Amino acid sequence: MVEMIERGLTEEQRMMRDAIRAFVDGEVTPFIRKNWEREWDMKPESRPTRELLEGAHRIGVRTLGIPEEFGGTPVDPKTEVQTFAMVAEEISRGDSGLGDKLTQIWKISKLLQNIAPRHLQELWFPRIVEDPTFLLAHCLTEPRGASDRWLPYDVPEAMMHTKAALKGDKWVINGRKQFITNGYDAKLYVVYATTKPGAGMTKGTSSFLVPRDTPGLSVARCNETLGGRFMNTGEIVFEDCAVPKDHCLVENTALTKAGVYFRPGKIIQASKNLGIAVAAFEKTADYVQNYVQGGRTLIKHQAVAIRLAEMATKICAVRSLLNEASRAVDEGAPDAEQLVNMAKLFASEEVFKVCQHAVELHGGNGIMLDFGIEKHLRDAAVFLHMDATVDISKFKIVKCMFPDTAGVYAGPEN
Ligand SMILES: Cc1cc2nc3c(=O)[nH]c(=O)nc-3n(C[C@H](O)[C@H](O)[C@H](O)COP(=O)(O)OP(=O)(O)OC[C@H]3O[C@@H](n4cnc5c(N)ncnc54)[C@H](O)[C@@H]3O)c2cc1C
């Protein structure tokens, strides 16, 4: 399996991967094992990853998506998404929560590089680079549901309830967002709001840059998750939250301009997911070659060997599709949109099954919190719902393939 990872990498990517692997094996995995009880501390502040963020900072991984002129880590643009995929997988092999935290910085930085005015880039990028604890968040989901946003249905009924109105020289935001990655800890938020009610999602939704200390922004709570628990999702409330006029990043057509975030975003999701599977496989492969039942090591039992083969095959299948989709995004290929959705969807379902095998092959140990295998299954479960549910992802794939006939099902009931 290692050969397959190595095959597609450039010399530069290989060196980067070695550095990250050393960080993950030397710092992240031991940290997670040692601190497993802290995953269950219901005070989000007590679920520590400052040490790990500092480590990621040290090896340059935290600032990958930030332009080099502002101190970011340079990446060859021709293979940028493939590099993101490789790094996301490696980090998530150590801990998917840490992967969530870091990849959000890269994704949102790429978005800001494309849509934020120059003076705001000059202000924020150096701050992100300097501060190892600086996290970013991207806020679409609301308590009323997010699936409509993913399709997106261009009918007034599907529009966001969070609204923004221009009053004098300020945009005033009112509303509520939930389940936001890094929402509890972020220092800077990209927030989507309806600015033209009745216009449809793609014609009346704007995006705004909102610093955490803006009056009217409050973090209501941490949404406690089943997996990825070293990343704190959050619920954020906006009450007459006023930002300067120039903090409107894209007026009215924000969702159509967000592809630069979403396409690499799906690749990164699938890659983090794959990292979980690889970690589960590595631990299981080790376990079945050392643990003895029925007078012989587990792997000598055919049923066990078959399960291990299934795990490996699923991992390689996910990696193949992911490689193809990453290349399509880097090349700007016309089928990139459907491929990224396929990769994200396929990874979420297959990795969940890989982790189920891992838990079952560990028997009772697989269920015990202090053993650490069940964490992979919990982490994998989250990916079925992040960045669109399984069903909505399938819907999106069909919409890409048959745009005229699929996905026109929203609107007032007849
Ligand atoms: C750990 C985590 C991190 C997240 N991070 C972020 C983030 O950073 N930013 C952000 O904006 N969001 C984030 N989300 C939210 C995520 O994108 C949504 O949870 C997801 O898109 C599903 O939306 P929902 O939870 O509102 O479910 P709903 O939209 O309420 O869906 C409920 C069910 O109905 C089904 N359904 C809905 N509409 C249809 C339809 N038209 N046809 C068929 N079935 C349908 C869905 O498939 C699902 O099974 C995160 C979620 C999680 C779990």
The H/E string reads: HHHHHHEHEEEHEEEEHEEHHHH
Count up the helices: 13
- Straight-line distance between termini: 53 Å
Class derived from helix and strand content:
alpha+beta
- Give the cofactors and ligands: flavin-adenine dinucleotide
Give the strand order, joined by hyphens, for the main sheet. Answer: 1-4-5-8
- Summarize the main sheet: 4 strands, mixed
What value does the average pLDDT take?
94
List segments where confidence is low: pLDDT < 50 over at least 5 consecutive residues: none
> How much of the sequence is in beta strands?
5-15%
Task: Describe the secondary structure blueprint for this structure.
Elements: H1 2-7, H2 11-34, H3 50-58, H4 80-94, H5 96-115, H6 118-130, E1 136-139, H7 147-150, E2 163-167, E3 170-180, E4 188-194, H8 201-204, E5 205-211, E6 217-223, E7 233-244, E8 248-250, H9 259-290, E9 292-293, E10 296-297, H10 302-330, H11 336-361, H12 374-382, H13 390-401
Parallel strand pairs: 1-4
Antiparallel strand pairs: 2-3, 3-7, 4-5, 5-8, 6-7, 9-10
